[in-house]
Amino acid sequence: MAAVLEASDVAKRYGAVVALERGELRLERGEVHVILGSNGCGKSTLCKIIAGAVPADGGSVVLEGRSVAFRTPLEAQAAGIATVYQETGLVPTLSVVDNIFLGQEPGKAGGRIDRKARYARFEMLIGRLGKLAAHLDPDTLVGDLSIDQQQIVEIIKALSREPKIIIFDESTSSLDRAQVADFFALVRALKHQGTSMIFISHRMEEIFAIGDTVTIMRNGRFIDRRPVSETSRDELVNLMVGSALQQMIEARQSHRQPGKPVLSVARLSGGKAQGISLELREGEILGLGGLHGQGQSDTLLALYGGITRRGGEIVIAGKQLGGSTPAAALKQGLVYVSGDRGRAGALRGRPIIENLIVGILSKSSKPIAERGKLRAQVRPVIDQLKLKFGRLSDAIETLSGGNQQKVVVGRGLATGPTVLLLDDPTKGIDVRAKQDLFALIDELCAGGMAVILYSSEDMELIDHADRVLVFNTGHVVAEISREDLSEFALNEASLKTAPAHAEQQPAHV
Ligand SMILES: Nc1ncnc2c1ncn2[C@@H]1O[C@H](COP(=O)(O)OP(=O)(O)OP(=O)(O)O)[C@@H](O)[C@H]1O
């Protein structure tokens, strides 16, 4: 069968960096084709070349038998290729409908925008997304939407062009489990209509849930292509990273012995979090679980002073938290790291080194910073996280998504925190980078650091947490000990509801 799209020998360099050496992809009609590979192996570069976002240095792309080299994304869109990126390219100051139809006005009459036609088309499009877009208001400003809602708008925008090929570049990383299920229903419907899809994801279970074929890449090169039904998780990890590392992944972290209490929180409320009480000990990793958006992130943000606290007492290492700002929290050794690198993480346009030292600088009370000393302080973190970069003075945007995320995490770790608050820290980072990150966290915990980890991936909690507090509608509804941790236990607990007086009476932890 002739492929809808065939890319061969595609190459791309950025100065001295070889982003892609031999990119290959063979996409069939109505197929979901997964591209799998470590951070920085060239997945996004290959997709950007196909989608006209960056020009290739060499190789060929053949679309329906015709050789193409799109100079802009608009050209690719006109040829039927749409892309949904992880970092949304939406305009925050425009409404949902304005973003969706930007550059393609439906029913434009006499040069004027036919708003009625737009809304009608919007309704038709969200109908195709079912529950996924059920509460999306067409007139809300995109900047006021949560990251997951923005991603859904990106998906609708891509669909509005009725593409033959859709590239989903880590589109599920900001969606929760229920949303991913709805998204997959949409993917299946599109497949049924004959739409071909390229799908980048670091979540192994998603590959098996939705993929037909998987292309594995390593260091900018095509390694192999397999039908998903004829491969296994182990084989894919092997192809991706090599067998020694796989053993490391399989080796579950050794059990830690938590020490004395370092954080005590009573009746904390802020954002969606209501009356949260918890205790954390030295060396412990406390997981926060439950469905996405049930108050887990808000608990971390309220602790850190990232959102307003409505009440609660916080004691760190025996001392009351002396303020409500992030600066006060940082001074007492409480550090917050967000996995949402687009919005809350990286300092865009600034060098890698600045992104790394900014935490140390805000903690320090010295008016003058010594450059050499700062570099020496961040060096171990760079080494431990195996950060891949050209020069520390390069802009953070020159790093792959996963490496940018490592910088954001590394910035927090470089301050030597007593308590580290990790808010879904591994969104969009690959299995090897996750391993590097948790190896470092385990090491720091062995030295006494304590961690509260919110993760939207149950497996991450199961692999790393000593116990998990499960959230529902802003309350802690269950606590699961390490011995009892399983996907089933987490799922079951996430459906429990809070007791009627939960606001007044702190949940037992
Ligand atoms: N604009 C750029 N300038 C310099 N180097 C770049 C640029 N874009 C990508 N690179 C480099 O090219 C390599 C491949 O990057 P790419 O984004 O394609 O990787 P990826 O496989 O999609 O990674 P991830 O899973 O982390 O998103 C990386 O080493 C990255 O740092």
TrEMBL record:
Recorded superkingdom: Bacteria
Ranges of residues in domain ABC transporter: 5-244, 249-498
Cross-referenced InterPro entries: AAA+_ATPase, ABC_carbohydrate_import_ATPase, ABC_transporter-like_ATP-bd, ABC_transporter-like_CS, P-loop_NTPase
Gene3D superfamilies associated with the record: P-loop containing nucleotide triphosphate hydrolases (3.40.50.300)
Keyword ATP-binding: yes
Molecular function terms from GO: ATP binding
Keywords tagged on the record: ATP-binding, Nucleotide-binding, Repeat, Sugar transport, Transport
Keyword Nucleus (UniProt): no
Pfam families (alphabetical): ABC_tran
Family the entry assigns: Belongs to the ABC transporter superfamily.
Protein name per UniProt: Sugar ABC transporter ATP-binding protein
Organism in which the protein naturally occurs: Mesorhizobium liriopis
